[in-house]
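Lab meeting, item 3. Inverse folding demo.
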């Protein structure tokens, strides 16, 4: 690994606010005053459907086009559009089908996005105010739509820069096939052609809805009634509980990625709810071939979802270090200038992984994804109690033969977890609530600091007395003052233990090896005097679907006829349970 301290100062200084930037502020303001907009431009995508686009530019001279393809209100991107347009680009905001002034019916995360982004790129490249080059910008859905554009080989498309990109069927509307209750809020907010965020995202109302649903033991399908005109979409999503062709048609095929040679800048954060999707896209791209890997740059900071576009000192409810607060407009501009205007590529954006190491206030660099290769083992307590108050031991020493077990009642578990619809980086109420219905393991105090960089993995040997259950796993740092930081997490619905595209019920009482191999990436210096805490349980927060452990599709299950569930983790010398950590 390359130590990044001096490199950070030399190469990221302009992103952190160099004094020369303030001198140029008045010039920037003058440039922005010259930006005008026009529209709606009608962009035909089928014989009977045209999409609506709004163009931002300082004049009509041919320039490279930066495209944002979005289901959200174009007005939300005005500041970003004006910034790029003031730097000699055309910024084009296009509304997806059925949204804004675009015709057709809203079809989120579908083959329509794949086809429509291609048509829009070809249209933009052919306009007299375009020089024939198109790039893309945006985060979340607007990040996903950039990957959708790679499904077809398009000569005008020169680069994409997706931030916090959703991967349909992987991290939204379900995470590892465990559905987000938030997805129903999202569909409620995007009814019709306008945005209803202020009404749909009243979390107190949705918290009460989910609580009542669980108290009454009703199925997830009951939440579709709140999605209004998007009810059909909600039910379509529920009808596809695995990563099947319905979801796969919304992203590029392996063949398409193997034929793509574009520079790709991927941005995500340690506390970004779509880190899983962003990294899945990135991993597929670099796995497509050596040229793709050499063209891929990954930037990871201590950011939440919104912070992947506008970092601030407060992220996910905690204060982060000042050098993590980059000017991402400036970063994107340098990326586009390199690709579209043949300027020098900034070393801070060379291919590979640029990550912020929390606890050092430094940016670091890796040429490839680090391996989780340091084994930590589970050790029992004599009283077989594994709560936050009396945890088992997490240690690098080999664990003895043992059984670790917990018991829960599905309907009660639905109401046990105190975490509602949002989760902060220092949240620990869910772990403290574990009392016989989960397992907690804590390490000894660290006598020296340790850098945790990458994604952990966990191998467990699990037996359940039911045909299915969900298991939520969390790794935290407990600091000397008792405060905690959620470092990385994973979750599994055990019927999908062999892959997101597969479903096989458990045989009750049978022992299964289960790999938790989709933990989130973290870059954190674990401080001297801190400890690590590993917890696992089956008590879902309110933002996730609840599994009543029956054989039916989980969205159809009710609390009727649910039994007490026993989860047992068995450890032998031949079959150890191991937490693999990426320690540098």
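The presenter then showed the designed sequence:
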């Amino acid at each position: 690994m390359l130590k990044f301290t001096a490199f950070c100062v030399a190469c990221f200084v302009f992103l952190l606010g160099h004094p020369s930037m303030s001198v140029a502020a008045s010039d920037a303001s003058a440039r922005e005053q010259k930006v005008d907009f026009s529209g709606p431009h009608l962009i035909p995508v089928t014989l009977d459907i045209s999409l609506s686009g709004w163009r931002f530019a300082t004049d009509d001279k041919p320039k490279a086009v930066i495209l944002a393809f979005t289901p959200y209100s174009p007005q939300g991107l005005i500041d970003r559009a004006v910034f790029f347009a003031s730097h000699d680009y055309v910024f084009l905001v296009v509304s997806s089908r059925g949204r804004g002034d675009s015709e057709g019916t809203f079809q989120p995360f579908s083959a329509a996005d794949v086809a429509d982004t291609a048509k829009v790129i070809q249209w933009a490249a052919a306009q007299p105010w375009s020089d024939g080059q198109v790039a893309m910008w945006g985060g979340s859905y607007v990040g996903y739509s950039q990957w959708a554009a790679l499904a077809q080989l398009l000569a005008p498309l020169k680069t994409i820069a997706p931030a916090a990109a959703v991967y349909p069927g992987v991290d939204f509307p379900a995470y590892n096939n465990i559905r987000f209750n938030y997805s129903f809020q999202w569909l409620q907010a995007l009814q019709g052609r306008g945005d209803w965020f202020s009404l749909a995202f009243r979390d107190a109302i949705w918290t009460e809805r989910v609580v009542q649903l669980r108290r009454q033991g009703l199925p997830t399908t009951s939440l579709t009634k709140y999605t209004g005109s998007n009810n059909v979409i909600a039910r379509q999503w529920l009808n596809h509980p695995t990563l099947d062709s319905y979801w796969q048609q919304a992203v590029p095929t392996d063949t398409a990625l193997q034929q793509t040679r574009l520079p790709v800048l991927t941005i995500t954060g340690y506390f970004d709810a779509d880190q899983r999707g962003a990294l899945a896209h990135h991993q597929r791209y670099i796995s497509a071939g050596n040229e793709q890997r050499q063209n891929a740059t990954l930037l990871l900071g201590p950011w939440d979802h919104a912070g992947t576009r506008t970092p601030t000192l407060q992220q996910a409810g905690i204060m982060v270090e000042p050098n993590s607060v980059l000017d991402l407009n400036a970063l994107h501009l340098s990326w586009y200038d390199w690709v579209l205007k043949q300027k020098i590529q900034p070393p801070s954006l060379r291919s590979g992984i640029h990550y912020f190491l929390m606890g050092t206030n430094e940016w670091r660099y890796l040429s490839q994804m680090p391996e989780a290769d340091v084994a930590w083992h589970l050790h029992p307590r004599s009283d077989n109690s594994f709560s936050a108050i009396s945890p088992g031991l997490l240690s690098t020493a080999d664990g003895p033969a043992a059984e670790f077990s917990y018991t829960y009642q599905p309907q009660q578990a639905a109401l046990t977890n105190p975490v509602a619809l949002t989760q902060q980086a220092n949240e620990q109420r869910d772990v403290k609530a574990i009392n016989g219905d989960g397992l907690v393991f804590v390490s000894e105090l660290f006598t020296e600091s340790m850098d945790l960089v990458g994604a952990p993995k966990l191998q467990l040997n699990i037996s359940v007395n039911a045909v299915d259950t969900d298991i939520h796993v969390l790794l935290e740092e407990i600091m000397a003052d008792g405060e905690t930081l959620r470092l990385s997490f994973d979750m599994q619905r055990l019927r999908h233990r062999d892959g997101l595209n597969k479903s096989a019920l458990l045989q009750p009482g049978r022992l299964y090896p289960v790999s938790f191999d989709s933990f989130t990436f973290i870059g954190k210096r674990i401080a001297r005097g801190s400890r690590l805490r590993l917890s696992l349980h089956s008590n879902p927060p309110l933002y996730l679907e609840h599994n009543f452990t029956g054989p039916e599709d989980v969205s159809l299950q009710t609390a009727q006829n649910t039994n007490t569930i026993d989860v047992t983790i068995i450890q032998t010398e031949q079959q150890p349970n191991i937490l693999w950590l990426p320690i540098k």
